[in-house]
Amino acid sequence: MTDQRLIHLVDDDEAVRHSASFMLRHAGFLVKTYADGVQFLECAQTADPGCILLDVQMPHMDGLEVQERLNELGLAFPVIVLTGHGDVEVAVKAMKAGAIDFVEKPYEKQTLVDAIVRAFDRMDARSLKDVLADEAKGRVERLTPREKDVLVGLVDGFTNKMIAETLDISPRTVEIHRANLMEKLDAPSLSSVLRIAFAAGIGMESSQ
Q: What is the pTM of this model?
C-alpha cells in the first residue's frame, strides 16, 4: 500500500527492534529500523517523512542527544520517546525539547499504536506554513552569529558594501560569509535566501 504510514524505529536492542517492527507492520505501518541514533542521523536528512520512535537509553548517543541533533537539522518529524519505567524526568526533558509523546517500556501494543496515531494526526493538522517555518528555522540555526548578521543585512536590502560598513568588516569578508550562509541554507540564489529567512521569521518584525 502506497498510503501506509512510515515509522522510523531507533533502538539499540535488537529484540525490541524485531518485536516492535513486527507488531507495527501487523498494525499496518511501514517500519524502518536503526541500531542506534548515530545510524539514524546518518540518513535522517534524506529520510522519508514519518514518525520517529526514539529509545532514550542507547550507546554512543542517547535519545535526547539524537533529538537535539534533529532539532539542529530542522527536521520536523514527530518524535515519540521510548523510556524505561520511571524515567519521568527524562520524558519531561524530551517533551520540552519537542517530543510530542512518550511511552514507557514495556508497552502495550494499543498504547504504542494510539501514540503513533496521535503523532500522525498532529503532523497532518499542521499547516504547510508551520512545516516550512520549522525547516527554515532549523537551517538558520546552522549559521554562525556573523553569518546571521550578514543574513539580517540581506533581508534589510543592504548591499555587501553596506553590510561591511555596518558590521565593520571588509566587503570581501561579507562575500565569504554570504557564500557560506547560502551553502548552509541550501539556497542557490538571493531570492531563495530571502524566502528561507522570511519563513524563519527574520525581518518580519518590521513588516508588522
A: 0.61
Cα distance between residue 57 and residue 127, in whole Å: 33
Give the N- to C-terminal CA distance of the chain in Å, as an integer.
Answer: 46
CA gap 51, 48 in Å, rounded: 10
Q: What average pLDDT score do residues 29-39 get?
A: 94
Q: Which helix (H) or strand (E) holds 203?
A: none
In this structure, are residues 67 and 97 in contact, taking their beta carbons and an 8 Å threshold?
yes
Q: Domain range spanning residue 41?
A: 6-126
Q: 171 and 107: one domain?
A: no
What does 108-143 look like in DSSP terms, one character per residue?
-HHHHHHHHHHHHHHHHHS-HHHHHHHHHHHHHTTS
Per-residue pLDDT averaged across 110-128, rounded?
A: 82
Please tell me the total number of residues recorded for the chain in this structure.
208
Distance CA 176, CA 33 (A): 40
CATH number at residue 11: 3.40.50.2300
Q: Which amino acid is at 131?
A: V
Q: Say how many domains are in the chain.
A: 2
Residue with cell 555587501: 160
Residue 199 has which C-alpha cell? 519563513
One domain for residues 108 and 153: no
Which strands sit side by side in the sheet containing 30-34, from one edge to the other? Answer: 30-34, 6-10, 51-55, 79-83, 101-104
Q: What pLDDT was estimated at residue 164? A: 97
In whole angstroms, what is the distance from residue 44 CA to residue 135 CA? 13
